[in-house]
Amino acid sequence: MAGSLFNLSANRRLVAGLLANLLSSICIVFINKWIYVHYGFPNMTLTLVHFVVTWLGLYVCQKMDMFSPKSLPIRRIVWLALSFCGFVAFTNLSLQNNSIGTYQLAKAMTTPVIILIQTTYYKKTFSTKIKLTLVPITLGVILNSYYDVRFNLLGTVFATLGVLVTSLYQVWVGAKQHELQVNSMQLLYYQAPLSSGFLLCVVPVFEPLTGEGGIFGPWSLPALVTVLVSGVVAFLVNLSIYWIIGNTSAVTYNMFGHFKFCITLVGGYLLFHDPMSLNQALGILCTLVGILSYTHIKLAEQEEGKSRLAQRP
């Protein structure tokens, strides 16, 4: 009886965690898009707000003993912090200058770029099945980009830079966690304030501080509240990701991530009237098939590797 009650409580917590991640991940995309479209809030300043709120949130978590910070030498995470700035800034610029469909599908190109980086510079090998899943992913992105009526040069540049920097960041995150023997939250706890400091130096160069469009400009109360809410949601996205992976498995999180991907695309079509032709829909479907195939094969290979290790005397 006690075991049944424990399982019921655990299931409720799991459902609550999944719902929190679903809502926060979808909300952050639409809130940021709303801020760009309706308020014209500067991109890099919004990123700075996200970093500061994320660090404050992690500081509160640390004080609540949700994780223990580990002292890290700043010089060993400088490039990681810089890439963190770049990946958030460029993906936000991609969202600002592209339709949500193009933004999401461009992000799908992160997987093949990571494979290319790890194969070229880290001498990591991937199976033929994994490499074949890149075909439908790439084909889907090409289909969507070709038929997207909002396709533009500036949006393409930002999307490309976003993919490259995001890929480098994700590769470095794994390498640094192994090298420094820290978990994701411990690493992010140092990244966020360091990245905030870098952006604080750069923002005045690219964005006005006062007047129309400046951080200290005549913003309305609804605009400021929306920006603050965006920062809180950005923190919740990170926190819920770590919670789900820590309490379930990578399979659960990845499959749930694809579900969020589909909902976000449909939401962009319904809320922001992003155009979606039949060819774009086919591109989305093709990309989604490739992502699902990649996830399934990759996780199956990981399980097979664990089984082999377990069978060794």
UniProtKB/TrEMBL annotation:
<keyword id="KW-1133">Transmembrane helix</keyword>
<dbReference type="InterPro" id="IPR004853">
    <property type="entry name" value="Sugar_P_trans_dom"/>
</dbReference>
<feature type="transmembrane region" description="Helical">
    <location>
        <begin position="41"/>
        <end position="61"/>
    </location>
</feature>
<feature type="domain" description="Sugar phosphate transporter">
    <location>
        <begin position="23"/>
        <end position="294"/>
    </location>
</feature>
<feature type="transmembrane region" description="Helical">
    <location>
        <begin position="221"/>
        <end position="245"/>
    </location>
</feature>
<dbReference type="GO" id="GO:0016020">
    <property type="term" value="C:membrane"/>
</dbReference>
<feature type="transmembrane region" description="Helical">
    <location>
        <begin position="187"/>
        <end position="206"/>
    </location>
</feature>
<keyword id="KW-0472">Membrane</keyword>
<comment type="similarity">
    <text>Belongs to the TPT transporter family. SLC35E subfamily.</text>
</comment>
<feature type="transmembrane region" description="Helical">
    <location>
        <begin position="153"/>
        <end position="175"/>
    </location>
</feature>
<feature type="transmembrane region" description="Helical">
    <location>
        <begin position="252"/>
        <end position="272"/>
    </location>
</feature>
<dbReference type="InterPro" id="IPR050186">
    <property type="entry name" value="TPT_transporter"/>
</dbReference>
<dbReference type="InterPro" id="IPR037185">
    <property type="entry name" value="EmrE-like"/>
</dbReference>
<feature type="transmembrane region" description="Helical">
    <location>
        <begin position="14"/>
        <end position="35"/>
    </location>
</feature>
<feature type="transmembrane region" description="Helical">
    <location>
        <begin position="101"/>
        <end position="118"/>
    </location>
</feature>
<feature type="transmembrane region" description="Helical">
    <location>
        <begin position="77"/>
        <end position="95"/>
    </location>
</feature>
<protein>
    <submittedName>
        <fullName>Solute carrier family 35 member E3</fullName>
    </submittedName>
</protein>
<keyword id="KW-0812">Transmembrane</keyword>
<comment type="function">
    <text>Putative transporter.</text>
</comment>
<dbReference type="Pfam" id="PF03151">
    <property type="entry name" value="TPT"/>
</dbReference>
